[in-house]
Amino acid sequence: MGTKENCRNELRTAIRHLSDRCLYSASKWAAEQLVGIEQDPAKFTPSHTRFQRESSSIRRRFRTNEMVTSTPTAGVSYVSTPPVPEEEGDHDGAAVDSDFYLMAKAYFDCREYRRAAHVLRDQTGKKAVFLRCIKGMFKTQFSPKTPVRKVAGEKRKEEETIELEGPLGKSDAVNRELVSLERELSTLRKNGSIDPFGLYLYGLVLKEKGSENLARAVLMESVNSYPWNWSAWSELQSLCTTIETLNNLNLNNHWMKDFFLASAYQELRMHNESLAKYENLQGTFSFSNYIQAQIAKAQYSLREFEQVEVIFEELLRNDPYRVEDMDMYSNVLYAKECFSALSYLAHRVFLTDKYRPESCCIIGNYYSLKGQHEKSVMYFRRALKLNKNYLSAWTLMGHEYVEMKNTPAAVDAYRRAVDINPCDYRAWYGLGQAYEMMGMPFYALHYFRKSVFLQPNDSRLWIAMAQCYETEQLHMLEAAIKCYKRAANCNDREAIALHQLAKLHNELGRLEEAAFYYKKDLERMEVEEREGPNMVEALLFLASYCKAQKRFEEAEVYCTRLLDYTGPEKETAKSLLRGIRIAQSGFPSMDVEHFPI
């Protein structure tokens, strides 16, 4: 049996196991990877080809010629999977129909009814037709089965949160069931009578109580015993905040480990390593939308917005009712000011599922781009009512409060974000902005330093820190120059760094360095076909500098370009040209030592 077939069989069994235990999110993840495995061409029928997407340019773009087409590193499970008997009447459709039925059932369990119907749109099996048709019967959402004691504790915790919550939803409420749950699960583990799913639950309890080391050990036992529970891997990943912690894990060599490492590398900002892992996994899971979304996330972190946009467009074509990860797509559209595309996306997710945190964030971004910041805040608050730990909503709401000049509320929102995830560079950057607005540059500098430590390849963060050094209270121009240099080396899209480097060097009397950066800035503006005051400033400086250096021909070129302008720079250029001609004729002239621009 080939490696892909092994993966397929393991995942099919895992989906049933996870669904039986009401781990619907993990079951959905497994089902998406199952459908993402390239099918055996011999088993295709015309009705199945729609799902194969074999002409996908995106998937080919990320795969190298040397890529292995088998599962990375020993793709054979170390845990024997118990056989699951087929249900009576389960043989009415092709094998590939069963894969899509399992994914649709997982979507159905997660209340994503439109996605379930879309997956089954070409399926002809009796169970598939039944599930597709019954979707229309549910006009109200029903609650799936959940472990009773866990729900009881969390329900009481939510009630106390409402009763005790302070500004922006802060609360000290705790789940009172944790102590008895920990005692019971600990005893079962000591007696050796706990299964991998019980270990997963025990790990959750320990994590919530703050026993991180023991929680890591217990979750590691769980994934080593039963590697197909993605929820357990996700909880384990949240406890690996450093590369040292990650490397110290003793994990079995299973293909699920590669999914875990790829995701962990992304959280640890090792984006190139993460991309390499996901590209390897595409050898087996060629059509996995999950992997495509993760590749888009890595590209987003590397600020490759054009590529990210292309990937998300294809994801929406393949999965038109997808909501998860679409808030990141909306961030890209917001950054590129693609108003019509963002409006279309907001309308689309509103019709699909308006009561999802991602949908609320997308609509919030839409109103923010329109300049309706109060409405934007309303939708970010709605997202937080649905999920109080939704990181993007806290950060984006902080940005909106900054726009509204409500700095105390912005600081509160950003602090909630860093409480949830101390590695969120955007929240640290937002805190820096807020304190800068309040005229507290030392505090601002502290937070900007944290943000650049977490995201050293983002030019905007280096520019913000440089501008902080330039303030009157600090006036540390040498430190500002270092920051601007880092920004210039990090693909400064806003074209700020080169101009500021030229100005600072000129201010410090370093005319040669100033000329170097003005020239580079001028060349960039010419390539990008940009006009404006920065170009005039560069031309004026370079004309004066070249004249002083007796490089008259070069100075004349810059002066001639300035004659095309209509402001005072035109008269300055004429004066410089007269000076150049006098100097060329042999009469003495005074060299300029410093050029205030």
From TrEMBL:
Q: Domain Cdc23 spans what residues? A: 7-296
* Repeat (TPR) residue spans along the chain: 357-390, 391-424, 425-458
Q: What is this protein's record name?
A: Cdc23 domain-containing protein
Spell out the SUPFAM superfamilies in the cross-references: TPR-like
Keywords assigned: Cell cycle, Cell division, Mitosis, Repeat, TPR repeat, Ubl conjugation pathway
Q: Which GO terms describe its biological process?
A: anaphase-promoting complex-dependent catabolic process; cell division; positive regulation of mitotic metaphase/anaphase transition; protein ubiquitination
GO CC terms of this entry = anaphase-promoting complex
Any stretches that span the bilayer, and where are they? none
Concerning Gene3D superfamilies, the annotation shows:
Tetratricopeptide repeat domain (1.25.40.10)
Q: Give the matching InterPro entries.
A: APC8 (IPR007192), TPR-like_helical_dom_sf (IPR011990), TPR_rpt (IPR019734)
Does the record carry Metal-binding as a key word?
no
